[in-house]
Structures are given as C-alpha cells and as structure tokens.
Amino acid sequence: MKWLNWIWHLYYDGFRGMTLGKTLWAIILIKLFIMFFVLKLFFFPNYINENVQEGEEDEFVSEQLIPQHL
Amino acid sequence: MNHLLTIDTAMVDWARAQFALTAIYHWLFVPLTLGLAVMMGIMETLYYRTGKEFWKQTAKYWQRLFGINFAMGVATGIILEFEFGTNWSNYSYLVGDVFGAPLAIEGIVAFFMESTFVAVMFFGWNKVSKGFHLASTWLTGLGATISAWWILVANSWMQYPVGQEFNPETMRNEMTSFLQVALSPVAVDKFIHTVLSAWVLGAVFVVGVSSWYLLKKRNIEFATKSLRVGTIFGLVSSVLIMASGHHSAYTVAQTQPMKLAAMEGLYKGGTDQPLTLISAVNPFRQPDYERQDEPPMKIAVPYALSFLATNDIHGLVPGVRDILDGYTKADGTVELSLEQKIERGRCAITALQEYRKAKKGGAPEVILNELRTEIKENMPYFGYGYVRERSQVVPYIPVCFYAFRVMVGGGCLFILLFALSLFFIYKGKITEMRWFHWIALLCIPVAYIVSESGWLVAEFGRQPWTIQDMLPTWVGVSHLGSSAVMTTFFLFLILFTTLLAVEISIMCKQIKKGPEL
C-alpha cells in the first residue's frame, strides 16, 4: 500500500505541478484523438477485414496474388 | 477479378509516397530522442558525481527539450501501422506473423519501460534518491533505444527476410527462428549505424543550441560546458559511425548488391572498383545503365569501393548490368540472371496455384508434398515471378546516388565540426569564435537532412521490393483507388506540417527562455 501511495503521489503531484507539460499533454491528446477517432475510424479500415468474411482471408489473398495468365 | 490485372499504378505511387511521408516525419523525432537521451544522461551523471546544482539544472534543461520532442513524436509511428492494414493489405497478410512480432514486442516492452521511467525522470526530482533518478534517466534512454531496436529488426527483416517459411495453405510467411529474425546481420548493422547516427544528431543539436547562447552572449557557462559534452560525445559517435558505415556497406554488398550498385551509380562492375566521390548523374531521370558503363565526369578514389564492399581492395563488386545478366561471385557461386530468377519466380507462383487447386480437390498427400517442395525451392525468387521488364528491378539511381553522398558527406562534415570545436575548447577560444557558432547552428537542419538521407538510401535502394526478392510493391498493395490514398496523403501532410510547426515553435520558445540557472 505504501508503494501504491507513493506512485499515486508521484503522478498526482507531477501532473498538478506541470507547466509546459500541460500544453504538451493537450497536444498529445488532440493528436491521439485525430489519429484514432478520425483517421483510423474513417480513413484507415482494415482492407481485408472489410472485404472478406472471417476464415476466407487466405483464399482472398491467393486470388489477389496468383495471376491467371501464368 | 485478379488484382494484378487491374492494379492502378498511381495507387502504388501514392501508397509509397504516403508511407515515405509518414516515415520521414516520424524520423524527425526519433533521432533527437535517442541522441538527447544520452546527452541528458551524461549531464545528470555529472550532477550525480559532482553534486553541483549547475549540472542538475543543465540536465533538467536538456530533459525539457527531450520532453518536447518526445511528446511531439509519440505515436506518430502508429500511423505506419494503419497504412499497413489499409494500403498494404497483401503485404500485411503475407508477412504479418513475422513482421508483427518485433512490432508487438516494441509496443509492449520498450514503450512501457520508456513511459514508466519518463514519469520518474520528470516528476521524481524531489521524490526519489539521486541514484534512482539517474537510473531512471538512463533507463528512459535505454527504453527508447530498445524500442528502436525492434522497429529496426522489423525493417531489416524486409531487407533480408530470414527465419521464416512460406505456408501455402495459410498463404502466410511463418516465423521459424525468432533469433534469426532478431539478430540477423542486417538488423545488427542497421541498429548500430542508426543509433550512432541519432547520437551524432543529438550532439549536433546540443552543440548548435549551445552555440546560439554563445552568439547571444548569454548563459555562457551553461553553453560552454554543454558544448564541451556535446563535442566529445559527438566526435566519438562520428568516428564510430564511420566504422559502422563501412560494415553496413559490406553487409549491403552481400545481401542487396543492387542497392549498392544504385548508391554508387555502378552500371558495369568488376574487380578493383573505385569509390565515386562525385559524378554528373542526372538528378531527374534514370540513367541509361544498359548502354553506359559509368556516369559521366566521375571523380573516384581508386580501389575504395572494392574495399568498402568486400574488405579487399581487389574485390569484385557487381554493377547493375552484372546483376541483371547474372555473374560469378568471388567464392565461385553463380548469381542467377534476372531471366532465370523470373523463371524460378513463375515456377513458385504456378506451383502455389496448383497446390491450392489440388488441396481444394482433395489431391493425395504425395502430390501436395511435391508441390510444397517446388514452392519451397523457388520461394526465394517468388517476387521475380511478377517482373516483366528489366527496369522494374532497378531502383531509382539518382536518389540513391545523391542521398548516399549527402549522408557520407554530412558525416565527414560533422567530424570536422566536432574536431574544430574540440580544438577551440582546448585553445580556450570557443566563446569568441562567432563564425563557428553560426556554422554549428546551421548544422542542426543539416543533421536532419543527412539523417533522412540515410533512410532514403536504405529505402529507395531496396525498390521495388517490400520484401527483398519476394514481394514487389505493386503486389503488396491493396486494390484501392488512388484518389482515396491521395486524400489521406494530403490529410497527413496538413497534420504533420501543423504538428511540426507547433513543435518548432515550442522548442524555440524554450530555448529562448533558457536554463533556470
């Protein structure tokens, strides 16, 4: 418990005492929001998961990669 | 519809451009993190040993700049993983089991280790003992370096795919030896060379920022002492990087000879090869390597390329045409011609096609085994089965050629910078040399250009392969329209430029504010 208390105070006091750190954390959070809730959700779907049913990925990729004219 | 018959070549270009943009942007932050981590560790060690408040404040100042850079760079590499799943889905599916392992280890072990000790480093000054704090500072740097190790292992595996085997049933490359992947000679070389280059950049940054204070005639003691630490660390790192660069070139010559030929503009190779200092390679178009033997107006150092590539001044270095036509190596083994490799690659693809048909049709195990053997024998050339023209397997020579010279030239420039700095420190004149302070300050952006050039050499030089010899870029991409990728490219460009402007602004403000001494 003593250790947990110590860790809690390390972070609590550290975050409370931040000056420049507050700006940096704000930038980090905005950046993570843009990355995960805008870019990942709307612009970066998993292409294979979107186009294939689970378990058929190997067939899909093999169809993509094996040229029919060989 | 078969993917390869309808692939949009613009999609390949945009996907590559987007990946390059993201990687270049990410690499703006990483080297300064790695370099400053050591610098602040040294400063704090000086505080620990001397007990002087001066070194404590100096360490805290560089830690503040480290923190800004760390905060701006954090998670920028994750975007690369988004791109794998969306733009490079065939690549991701085929090699995800191998490639994903080092990335996962990086995320779990190194990132968390780094994050934990970063908190102690910033929040723990008055809460933990001097020794514990010092250990946390060094462990922050060690965590960042281990993080770099796993990312570089993943990158090196693409350049030298060892420790894996293709499974035709699952259509995936599966890891057979973790140690071969983690400790491949390419990974070891790349790690040493990359980390040393980051240390040099960190040292240039410290010397440059310190020089700015000297130009402004403020914080003189802080600037002089920081400059001294940066100079010694930078000089040692710069000399070490020359040795690691030589070893990297040797490894490239063994594993990716086409890359070395492109870096050198060597169209027709042979023994006793000179190293080109400079020549008139047209920067805007691929040279006619089929007809020319070497670029025009070449100034070269005799025997140096043979020594660099083989550790023997008379060693054989193949040129672009030799690699395309096939050649006999010094040990007597024969490197196949492009036509032979294409034939082997087509055999692998055909055998794979037949295997999957036979498996579906319930063919007997003996037939499946024969086909498995045929796939395995020809798999090292799998990617060549998709090649139609000789030009497709030759990287864009102008970028490789000039980026290599910028990298090496920059490395030599930094040795000179640190040597001059040491000389002026020794003579007690470092505070007076205003012209030197200007040069040191201007070297900061130069160090970034040099550092990025190293990556241009590494990544342009391995084209067209996403996985060396096994998967060309136009096969690794997803079947998307180029407009979708183009849109996200520009979104990234706006996002990255904004973040970079914010970082530079915050960093400059903190530098102007100076240390709390």
Care to describe what's here?
The complex is a heterodimer of chains A (70) and B (517). Helix content of chain A is 76%, strand content 0%. Chain A is built from 4 helices and no strands. The longest helix of chain A has 24 residues, at 20-43. In chain B, 71% of the residues lie in helices and 5% in strands. The termini of chain B are far apart. Chain B is mainly α and 517 residues long. In chain B, strand 1 (164-167) and strand 2 (172-175) form a beta hairpin. Chain B folds into 2 domains: 3-256 and 395-513; 338-386. The radius of gyration of chain B is 25 Å and the shape is globular. Chain B has a two-stranded antiparallel ribbon. At the A-B interface, helix 1, helix 2 and helix 4 of A face helix 1, helix 3, helix 4, helix 5 and helix 13 of B.
How many helical elements of chain A? 4
Structural class of chain A: mainly alpha
Oligomer: heterodimer
Please give the domain count of chain A: 1
- What gross morphology of chain B would you assign? globular
Largest sheet data of chain A: none
Broad shape of chain A: elongated
**Got a strand count of chain A?**
0
Secondary structure: elements and pairs:
The complex is a heterodimer of chains A (70) and B (517).
Chain A: H1 2-16, H2 20-43, H3 47-51, H4 57-65
Chain B: H1 3-6, H2 9-50, H3 53-73, H4 78-87, H5 89-123, H6 130-159, E1 164-167, E2 172-175, H7 178-182, H8 185-215, H9 220-255, H10 257-264, E3 275-278, E4 299-301, H11 304-310, H12 320-325, E5 327-328, E6 334-335, H13 338-360, H14 365-378, H15 397-427, H16 434-460, E7 465-467, E8 471-472, H17 473-476, H18 482-513
